[in-house]
């Protein structure tokens, strides 16, 4: 069976994608920082009859990244790496004049540096796969200027560039930066707690990711709303 590593998989988009892949027969290695929630997620997914390894930890820890890839190797390799774990840099978000520099460093460390570290660990197994794929979960804040989203957006813009270069350097792989669009997630609630407007559930955008996995278009940046509309 194909094997996926998904970071930030205990809730939100990571969990929604993991649930659908498990139902389709994927084995997987799941990462998140909260052990209790991650364990519950893994138990739910294992109900589909697939093998699920849950490894709580922080993706900025090199030893944890090595553990994730070693666990995937035990399951047979790495066919898909989903870099979904993210940090905002400040909760709630603030204007750049007040953004703590340590918060910006944290966002860059989680959203960019740790991503590259995990890609580097997984590359030998991804290259060995017949359909090696890397998904970077991006944001429209990477391409658009929104007040208070400067630090987070800058980190996601760097992630997009990392994905673009990786796609050039690894032509046998598929490397997609995917903007999922607005979603009702804990991350968004922490970013803008005063915004009570309804937003789509993460599960509603999973079909966009499935379309990419099914059609395997060229490496590049894609928006879930456009994929869902069939463009």
Short description:
This protein is an alpha/beta fold and 231 residues long. 46% of the residues lie in helices and 15% in strands.
Molecular structure report:
- The model has no long low-confidence stretch (mean pLDDT 97).
- A seven-stranded parallel β-sheet has the order 3-2-1-4-5-6-7, with helices on both faces.
- β1 (3-6), α1 (12-23) and β2 (27-32) form a beta-alpha-beta unit.
- α1 runs parallel beside α2.
- The protein is of the alpha/beta class.
- The chain has helices at 12-23, 35-46, 62-75, 101-128, 150-169, 186-191, 206-215, 224-228, and strands spanning 3-6, 27-32, 52-56, 80-83, 133-137, 174-179, 220-223.
Overall 3D geometry? Answer: globular
Strand count, sense and closure of the main sheet?
A: 7 strands, parallel
Instruction: Count every beta strand, where a strand is a DSSP E run of 2 or more residues.
Output: 7
The neighbouring-strand order within the major sheet is 3-2-1-4-5-6-7
Average pLDDT score: 97
- The run of helices and strands is EHEHEHEHEHEHHEH
Look at the helices and sheets and give the structural class. Answer: alpha/beta
Weakly predicted, low-confidence segments: none
Q: Distance between the terminal alpha carbons, to the nearest Å?
A: 30 Å
Question: How many DSSP H or I helices?
Answer: 8
The fraction of residues in strands falls at 5-15%
Helix residue percentage: 40-55%
Rg over CA atoms, rounded to whole Å, is: 16 Å
């Amino acid at each position: 069976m194909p094997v996926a590593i998904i970071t930030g998989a205990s809730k939100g988009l990571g969990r929604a994608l993991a649930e659908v892949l498990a139902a389709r027969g994927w084995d997987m290695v799941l990462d998140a920082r909260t052990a209790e929630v991650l364990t519950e997620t893994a138990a739910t997914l294992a109900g589909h009859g697939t093998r699920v390894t849950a490894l709580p930890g922080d993706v900025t820890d090199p030893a944890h990244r090595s553990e994730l890839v070693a666990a995937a190797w035990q399951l047979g390799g790495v066919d898909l790496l989903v870099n979904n774990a993210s940090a905002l840099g400040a909760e709630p978000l603030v204007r750049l004049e007040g953004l703590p520099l340590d918060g910006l460093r944290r966002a860059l460390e989680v959203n960019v540096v740790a991503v590259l570290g995990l890609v580097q660990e997984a590359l030998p197994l991804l290259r060995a796969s017949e359909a090696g794929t890397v998904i970077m979960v991006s944001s429209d804040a990477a391409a658009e200027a929104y007040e208070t989203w400067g630090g987070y957006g800058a980190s996601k813009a760097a992630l997009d560039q990392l994905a673009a270069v990786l796609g050039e350097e690894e032509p046998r792989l598929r490397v997609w930066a995917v903007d999922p669009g607005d979603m009702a997630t804990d991350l968004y609630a922490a970013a803008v707690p005063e915004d009570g407007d309804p937003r789509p559930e993460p599960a509603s955008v999973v079909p966009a990711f499935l379309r990419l996995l099914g059609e395997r278009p060229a490496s590049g940046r894609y928006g879930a709303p456009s994929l869902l509309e069939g463009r």
